[in-house]
Amino acid sequence: MSTRKSSEGVKLTSESEELIEIEGDLDPDFDIPNGANILIISKDQSYLTHGIHKFPAKFFPELPRYLIRKYSQPGEYVIDPMCGSGTTILEAMLNKRIGIGIDIDPIAQLITKVKTTPIASEPLETASKILEMQIEKLDNSAEYNPIIPDFPYRDNWFRSFVLRELGIIRDGILSIKEQTHISQVDDIVDFFHVIMSSIIRDASNADPHCTRTVLRKKVRKKILPGETLRKFSQRLAQQINEMKQFSNILDDFTYFHVHLPGGTALATELLDDSIDLAVTSPPYINAVDYPRTHQLEMYWLGLLGDGPLSKVKRKYIGTETVYKDEYRDLHVSGYQTLDPVLEKIYRRDPRRAYIAYKFFDDMKHQLHETMRILKPGSRYCVAIGNNLIRGVQVKSHEILSEIAVSSVGFELESQFFSKLIRHFIRIPRRERMHGEWVLVLRKPQ
Fold first, then answer.
1. Residues 357-388: pLDDT tens digits?
2. Whether the model pTM is above 0.85
């Protein structure tokens, strides 16, 4: 193996293939070679409000930062139509672009809103002191019975003392709404809710690393009385400091803005030819069930409504909630890269074949929608991972490239492979993605 430094300050490692290693930021003047393999050693996963809440398969900030700086200018519109926890939107904001974040997932909407909303230090400090005192008061009252939401298998997911402690935190946060003399009180309540949400998985009996929220007999977590309250207090103090830094940085900016409209990735409700750059990472097929991953958090925050979880999941791109009559017969797409894959999967698992078909059909519509809203000559950067479905290799980047070029009319300007070095959520080893292909698609002039 040999290594050398490139003129851009990245390390090139030669073995069977060239690997470009980047530590921290990548210079936007550097053109990543078409087809290259890159490895970004991230330094900013918890920078400012980026680390306010874990989220599966989220961007590390350096990648969207590079794409934003390379393919847009300050003051321009940058959209992520499947924004997840808002990494791209926050980076757009920090780089003086107008960020637009859309996501169908309610907890993704809340996290994105909170991490991109600066809160002044004085009201935040005042509210946090009131909250801490209220939590201590309620905890010390043996007669106090907090309001605990009812949801399926609640008492299996949480120990009784954890339920009480989370209920106390929840009631304490809701009491802050009554403090009308505090400026930005609604933003502060949302901030507190996200901090509470960020500790729920750890406070539960669920396996903290599994893709889905599940109980495992072999995973017996040691959770002591009072620990949930202590974790909340620690996380609150940490994230208040991060929010202060975030707000101070934005005080120095003459221009920043974020929009969080109520559309969807398939129907953004934005004007034709209005966006300068789109950057996103679509859901992974057969890997991350987002509603199920965050179900406990959404139950506690009241984000799921009264219907069953399966009804919510039907609305997601890449949903696994499908009906038998939908996958009884093999669905074909007409794409050379996709149909042979669908046929192989169908022979082993008709349901999984339909899930894959539906994902790419939804993505075709999403590509059409992004083409519509992009200005001529603008780019859509899509990070998508290949994966394994019932032993069949699905080269999602090749399939998406064919759809984007042949059906939608994009030009494939370049593509490169971005390796991953760590995951928040564990995925079974055979189905684990070792990185993502980044497609740089361009709308013709």
1. 999 999 999 999 999 999 999 999 999 999 89
2. yes
209 and 288 together in one domain: no
Domain end, chosen from 189, 219, 251, is at 251
Backbone angles phi, psi at 107, to 5 degrees: -75, -30
CA 62 from chain centre, in angstroms, equals 15
- Is the separation of the CB atoms in 296 and 196 below 8 Å? no
State which amino acid sits at residue 360: F
Q: Mind listing the pLDDT tens digit for each residue in 72-115?
A: 999 999 999 999 999 999 999 999 999 999 999 999 999 999 99
- Domains identified in the chain, total number: 2
Q: What is the C-alpha to C-alpha distance for residues 199 and 139, in angstroms, rounded to an integer?
A: 18
Domain residue limits at 300: 2-116+260-442
Which residue's structure tokens are 């750059």?
277
**Angle, vertex CA 29, rays to CA 28 and CA 33, nearest 5:** 90
Beta-ladder partners of 387: 394
211 and 283, same domain (yes or no)? no
Domain end residue (candidates: 190, 221, 251) = 251
**What kind and span of H or E run contains 279?**
strand 275-280
SS3 state at 343: helix
Which three-class secondary structure state does DSSP give residue 239?
A: helix
CA distance 162 to 200: 10
Residue 415: CA atoms inside 13 Å, Cβ hemisphere, count? Answer: 17
In the prediction, which pLDDT does 304 show? 85
